Amino acid sequence: xxxxxxxxxxxxxxxxxxxxxxxxxxxxxxxxxxxxxxxxxxxxxxxxxxxxxxxxxxxxxxxxxxxxxxxxxxxxxxxxxxxxxxxxxxxxxxxxxxxxxxxxxxxxxxxxxxxxxxxxxxxxxxxxxxxxxxxxxxxxxxxxxxxxxxxxxxxxxxxxxxxxxxxxxxxxxxxxxxxxxxxxxxxxxxxx
Amino acid sequence: xxxxxxxxxxxxxxxxxxxxxxxxxxxxxxxxxxxxxxxxxxxxxxxxxxxxxxxxxxxxxxxxxxxxxxxxxxxxxxxxxxxxxxxxxxxxxxxxxxxxxxxxxxxxxxxxxxxxxxxxxxxxxxxxxxxxxxxxxxxxxxxxxxxxxxxxxxxxxxxxxxxxxxxxxxxxxxxxxxxxxxxxxxxxxxxxxxxxxxxxxxxxxxxxxxxxxxxxxxxxxxxxxxxxxxxxxxxxxxxxxxxxxxxxxxxxxxxxxxxxxxxxxxxxxxxxxxxxxxxxxxxxxxxxxxxxxxxxxxxxxxxxxxxxxxxxxxxxxxxxxxxxxxxxxxxxxxxxxxxxxxxxxxxxxxxxxxxxxxxxxxxxxxxxxxxxxxxxxxxxxxxxxxxxxxxxxxxxxxxxxxxxxxxxxxxxxxxxxxxxxxxxxxxxxxxxxxxxxxxxxxxxxxxxxxxxxxxxxxxxxxxxxxxxxxxxxxxxxxxxxxxxxxxxxxxxxxxxxxxxxxxxxxxxxxxxxxxxxxxxxxxxxxxxxxxxxxxxxxxxxxxxxxxxxxxxxxxxxxxxxxxxxxxxxxxxxxxxxxxxxxxxxxxxxxxxxxxxxxxx
Lengths: 192, 600
Hints:
The complex is a heterodimer of chains A (192) and B (600).
Chain A: E1 6-13, H1 18-31, E2 35-40, E3 50-58, E4 71-76, H2 79-84, E5 89-98, H3 105-108, H4 118-125, E6 128-132, H5 134-140, H6 147-156, H7 163-173, H8 176-191
Parallel strand pairs in A: 1-4, 4-5, 5-6
Antiparallel strand pairs in A: 1-3, 2-3
Helix pairs in contact in A: 1-7, 5-6, 6-8, 7-8
Chain B: E1 2-6, H1 7-17, E2 22-25, H2 32-38, E3 45-48, H3 52-64, E4 68-74, H4 75-91, E5 96-103, H5 117-123, E6 127-128, H6 133-150, E7 154-159, H7 160-164, E8 165-170, H8 187-190, H9 194-217, E9 222-224, E10 227-235, H10 237-245, E11 249-254, E12 256-258, H11 262-271, E13 274-278, H12 284-291, H13 310-318, H14 345-355, E14 358-360, H15 385-397, E15 403-408, H16 409-415, H17 417-425, E16 431-436, H18 465-472, E17 476-480, H19 485-497, E18 502-507, H20 511-516, E19 526-528, E20 547-551, E21 569-573, H21 583-587, E22 593-595
Parallel strand pairs in B: 2-3, 2-4, 4-5, 5-7, 6-7, 10-11, 10-13, 14-15, 15-16, 16-18, 17-18
Antiparallel strand pairs in B: 1-8, 6-12, 9-11, 19-22, 20-21
C-alpha cells in the first residue's frame, strides 16, 4: 500500500464546479513537486447526478482511484452527498462539508425525505468535521458560482502548500474579469 | 514541458506530435474529447461523420490515398463500424490507419459493457492498450508505426478510466507530415471479391504471425521482477490498481493485448511461483495463457463485471474485504441524472407518458425520461433501434395508434434514416418523433449534419428533416414546439390515428445549447403563489429540478389556508434554477404559477 500517496475526494452534484476545483487542486500539487493523478466520471453524471472526483498525489502515483478507507480528506459540495462517500474515508480522515442542500428528484416529488441529521451523524463517527456555508459566503461576495473557490480555500488550509502556489494556479485558471473576486473568496475560505 | 492531461487529450496531442493530419469520428462517451481536442490543432482535418461506419470508411479511404488516418469511436461504435472493419483487415492500408475504441467498464455512460479486445482477435487486427495519459500519448504514435510497418489497421483501446483520468504528460514538438498522398491502384489488395479476398486471407494470417514475433520484443511489454512469489500479468488501467495495492509483486505489463507474446509470457511464468491474470471484463488474456498450458488465477477471484479499483484487486488476491470505517446502514435517496430545467424533451415526454402508448426509445438525454415521474419511454437498445422497433411492434400488434418511436436529431442521422425508409416501404402505421434539439446534446453539444456547421466550425449544408422524410416516402409530417403542451398532445394524437407512417419533428434547442451560444433564455422565471396552490401535484409530474413539494407540517414560518380538506402541502419553485419554459404554468389549473415580475 502506497503510504506516501495522499487522496482527496471531492463530491457533490453536477454543476457545482467540482471538476474545476479538482483541476486547480491537481495543478497546485503538480507545481508543488508531486506526481498527481485525478479521475472523475463524465457523461450522464453531468445531468444533475452525483459527481465525484479523486485527486491523488505523492512521489509516484499509480492508481487515480483510492480504495475504500483510504481517503485523507473528503470534500463535499452538497450535504447529503457526504454520506454516500463516507466509506472511502480513513478512520482519521477529515471532512469538509458545504452546508448546501440540493434536493434529489425523489425528495422534490415528496417520495423521500432529505436526511435531517447529516452533520451530527458524521460528527459522531469522525473527529475532524468542518461545515462551511460556502454558498451563502459566495452570495455575499457577489456571485453564487464562486462557492467552489471558497471550498477550495478551506481545503487549502488542510494541505501544507504555501499560498503563492495556489495564487499562481488561480491566476492561470480564471479569466481576468473574475480573477480578483475568486482570489478574495479563496482567502476567505482559507481563513475560515 | 510538463502538463496535466486527460488520456483523451493525450491521444489527440500524441497524434498531432506524430504529424497526423486526418481524423474522423462520431461522438460517444468516453471518446468524444479526443476529436474535440485534435480538431483544434493547426493544419489538421477533422470531421464528425454521421456515424462510426461512415467515419471508418472515411478513414479507410483517406489511408488508401496515402494519409495516416485516425478514426475514433466508443466501444459500441465499433459494432456499427464492424462491417468495413473486418474487410479493412484484409485490404490493409496504404498510408496508416489507427482506430480508437474507448470501452466503458461499469457502463458509466453506455448501454452495455462489451470488451472490444474481442474485436481485435475476431478481425485479426493488433491492439495496444495504454494505462495512463503519458502512455496514451506514446502508444498512439507506436500504433501508427505498427500500422505502417505491418500494413494493417491498428486498434488503440482505452477505458473510461484511462480516457477521463488526468496525469502528468511531457509535451514534445510535432513531427512534420511527410505523407505521400496519391492514387495507387492495386486490385489484388483493394478489390475484395472472393478470389482476391481468399488470397488476402492468407496474407492476414502471415501478418499475424509476424506481429506475434514483433510482440515478443515489443518494448512496451514490460517485465518487472521483484518478489517472485507472486506475478501479475495485466494491461491498461488495472496495472495501476495492482501496483497501488501490491507494489512489491512481480509484473508482466502488456502494452499490446493482441497478439500476445507467448514466449515472454512463458519466460515470466518460469520466474514467478504463482500467477494472477488481472483484467477487467472478459478473461481475454487469461484464457489464452491457460491455453498455453500455464496455470493462472483469474476470474475465479476477480469480477467479470464492472471496472476495478485498488480495493477490488486487493480483495481478489488476499480474500479480505476492503472497507472503510464501519457505519450504521442508512438508506439514502438516490440522485440519478435528470433532464435540465428548460429541457425541450420534458414537454414531449410528459405528453407521451400521459398518452399510455408504448414508446420505443433511443440513445440520448431523453432516455432519462423513462424514470418517475415522466415515465414516457419504454425501451432503449442502441442507436436507431427506436424506429425499427416501433415499426416491428406496430406490425406485430396489428392495431393502430399504440406505438411511438422517439429518436434524437443526431441519433436519427446516425442510424434512423434507413429504418424510417423501411416504414414507408413496408406500410407502417407507427409514429416516429425526432426530438430535434439542434445538437448532439448528451456528449456535450457536438455539431451534426443538420446543424449547418462542421466540427471545425465551417458553415455547411444543413439537412432538412421535412424534405428528407418526404423523399423517403413519408406523407404525414408535422413539426411541433414541445414547449406547447396542448399543441404537442393534439398533433401526436392526430398522427396516432392517421393512416400510414407519421413523422413528428419536436423542435426546440437544447437548454444548454442556448447557454453555450449565449442566445437569450426562453423567458422569465416563474413562481408559485402559495395562497392559490391547491396542492394537486400536477406540476411535480414534470420532474423539473426547481419544482419541489413542501408539506404543511414542515412549514413553520408561513400560514396557508387549505383549498381542500385533503390538501397536505404546496409546490414550490426555486426561481434561481427556473429557466422560464412555462410548462408548469401551462399545466396549473389553479392559476397559481406566475411569472416573477421584472422589478423583483
